[in-house]
Design brief:
Blueprint: H1 18-30, H2 40-44, H3 47-62, H4 68-81, H5 85-98, H6 102-106, H7 116-123, H8 130-145, H9 150-159, H10 164-186
Length: about 190
Amino acid sequence: DSKLEPRYNGPSEDEMSREQREIRDEIVDSRPRTGLSGPFGPWIAVPSIARPAQALGQACRYGTSLSFQESELVILLTGAKFKSHTEFDIHVGEALKAGWTMEVIESIPRDDSFTLESIKTHLIPKMENERQRAITVFSTELLLNYSVSDETYEKAKTALGGSDCVLVEITSIIGYYTYVSFTLNVFRIPSK
């Protein structure tokens, strides 16, 4: 939300320790297009958290077997569930680059409208294949119930090629972007 007044953007340049500058430089170097946006400013205040958070984010974003499009779907669902308008807004552009249409993106229920019923009514019909539907149902159930039923687990595992590893990846992306969403919400970081 561009209307947000940030509570805390992290330490200012003159307040930064040597270690904070190092991690800031590492983050900026690894993100030439976006730099120190999103949750990274507050995280830099604690380098022992910022460094592994940055590494986990890279692994979740670029080191899974999910396609760019599938990952962006999981990220948007997570931002929508946790009312992180900044997270959602940042990833709309990424989702469009990944091949999602605005029609699909706009059909993701947000805030208090984020229910399994609304996902099944508005989003699932727009999914192109069983794999996308399985990712959507698994992610939604996990986000709403903090776990998934045996039926959802098995259906997703089957639709995603029979590997538990893909479910680990989806769960990890949700966990990481939950942390991102909480950071953005607590410190009121705008999407710019």
